[in-house]
Please model this.
Amino acid sequence: MGFSGIRKKFYLPGDAWILALSAAIWSIGGSMVNPYQSVFFFAVGADSLFIGYLLAMGSAVTALMQLVGGYVADAWGRRKVIIVFSFISATSAFAYIFIEQYQLLVLPVMLASIAGVYGPAFNAMLNDSMQPELRPRGIVSFTLVTSLPSMFCPYVGGMLMHRLGTLRGLRLAYFMSGLFGLIGVSYRAWKLKEWTYPRSKTGKTKVLFRFVSELIKDNVYALKHASNGAKNLLIYSVMISVGTGMTVPYTSLYVVRVLGLQPDLYGLLTNVAGLISVMLLLLATRIVEKVGLRRSAIYASLSVPLNQLIFVRAKGMNDLVTWSVVGGASAALLGPSLTALQADLSPREMRGRMMAMFSVLPLITAIPAQILGGYLYNSLGPLTPFLASTPAFILATLVLRRIRETDVSNS
Model:
């Protein structure tokens, strides 16, 4: 079966296939290092409080850049911003190879955050290329294609740490991340065309102060005219970001440094979650199509606080395997449901700005959450951020229930 046959089978038409394949190549290297980011930060001398401030700073810059990216995606088109800033993001991984002092971690983190400007254009182009009624299937197919090549790469990263030491192993992994990133982005630049939403004919680029003024007005307008369903989904995303902001930066640090798990075993846990997620994705498609986007998202969201409770009670490998399995199953259903919901609740002409909002507002909320998580981890004990995050996950699920079926069907 050739590429065209695979595309039809997975329902990835046009640019969606190019975006998926390029992201799949990129993820091979990225998955070797992403689970261990905080471990690397700690290894070069950063404590949990500095990690919290560093990631909060990155979230602030990313939020600003995504706000700009949402405007650019709708006003100038999708392709150019995707290509240029994808290259910047891919090359930022190479900077980690030369980091010797933890203060210099600001440089690659800021570079990657600035490159986040292409996120709304990427998401808008991906959703533009799919028919609305087939979008959940397309999102699942995109997730499958991007996940399969890198499924066992977290174990490779952990093995490199185990064999070469934390710093040498992760520096090699960061090199691989940059290399595969450049290969994937080069394919993206070669194949990607601008057809889903061509550049608006608005004349010459505006001077800076007019650009900033229009940027603010346009995003306020998009938020003001968003449907009730979209606003509730935004609130849900914000609540989830509170919980993840307090916990995600410190999960690998807690498992490796506090529970004493070897890095390669933690990589295996990440692989288990990824494998379960991929195995259940096709089943998740059937569930979404049968019960609807709203209900499937609610069912999956209920498992998030449950999984957090499993993690805080974990004492050994068996508990962590359970945590990985539940997390993988939740991700299989929740990820495609939420992505499709975001697109369905966003009008095509405002999709770039709305996709930016779904990233920007959670990023803004994550800023104090990441700092608070670092403070709790450093001052009150490593387990406290994970305990404190559970109420946020429960409240988020309650907010998700406020989205009505008519919000989705009328979007």
Notes: The chain has one domain: 9-193+205-409.
